[in-house]
Amino acid sequence: MALRAIAGKKTLTLGLVLGPRAAAGASAPRTGSGLRHARGLVTFSLPDLPYDYGALEPAISGEIMKLHHQKHHQTYITNFNKALEQLEEAMAKGDSSKVAHLQSAIKFNGGGHINHSIFWKNLKPLNEGGGEPPHSTLGWAIDTDFGSLDALVQKMNAEGAALQGSGWVWLALDKEMKKLKVETTANQDPLVTKGANLVPLLGIDVWEHAYYLQYKNARPEYLKNIWKIMNWKYASEVYEKEIA
Q1: Using alpha carbons only, what angle is made at residue 22 by residues 106 and 147, rounded to the nearest 5 degrees?
Q2: Which residues form the Manganese/iron superoxide dismutase C-terminal domain (predicted)?
Q3: Is the dihedral of CA 220, 226, 227, 228 positive or negative?
Q4: Distance separating alpha carbons of residues 125 and 98, to the nearest angstrom
């Protein structure tokens, strides 16, 4: 369990429900920021976006991006920090019932923070290279495991459109099998809940708050257009690091 918040001799571990990879991922939503200490407790802050809110238009409107980032992501962080503080207090008191009760809030809100921190990095303005297809090792792996990039996109779009309720669709690297996989997770479950061997390369948010103001109930149209601003360079960098 890589991330610990220490108050005196009491140790708080995020890995209780999210697992070691998720805990590590949450600690670094962007280089050099997103993590702070308050009264000895490790807490989280909203990461800056690497682009302006309107930079992803017309695929995603600036209004959606601002609300999604400032309101939705911030709410997950606020509630995550609150749950972690309550967890620290419960552990200090030896209140095992309270510790168990808090696990769902930590998983949901911590997962929301982890997932969105990845999501922002998965997107890139069109005029900065967004949508440019992957080359080199990741491109070859996609051809090997899915047949072609078009086949992968169709598979992710189909699974994302078919996902009932809210959730995420992921392109993942299975480090044990050494191959790429498409996975879905419900609600704000981070990918690590499907297996600690899975590394998220791309994640697409299919909660309605990610698209409804612009696309209404046309989730397939949103899924079709998001590939125009996909940051394959980021996915390639993660992939190459993990297979090294």
Answers
A1: 130
A2: 136-237
A3: positive
A4: 44
Tell me the C-alpha distance between 8 and 108, whole Å. Answer: 27
3-state secondary structure 38-80: ECCEEEECCCCCCCCHHHHCCCCCHHHHHHHHHHHHHHHHHHH
- The answer to the question of whether 73 is labelled as a binding residue is no
Omega within 30 of 0 (cis) for the link into 58: yes
Q: Rounded to a whole number, what is the distance in angstroms from the first to the last CA of the chain?
A: 23
Separation between Cα atoms, residue 105 and residue 233, nearest integer Å: 33
Q: Is 116 annotated as a binding residue?
A: yes
- Report which DSSP code applies to 133: P
By C-alpha distance, which of 149, 132, 153 is closest to 141? 149
CA distance 130 to 54: 14
Nearest CA-CA partner of 112 in 14, 24, 28, 188: 188
Rounded mean pLDDT for each run of 10 residues along the chain, 244 residues in total = 30 44 39 50 92 98 98 98 96 96 97 98 97 95 98 98 97 97 98 97 98 98 98 97 94
Q: Which residues pair with 38 in a beta bridge?
A: 41
4-7/41-44 β-pairing: unpaired
Q: Is 113 known as a binding-site position?
A: no
CA distance linking residue 160 with residue 223, whole number of Å:
8
d(CA 244, CA 230): 23
* Cα 219 from Cα 211, distance rounded (Å): 7
Tokens matching residue 92: 């200090």
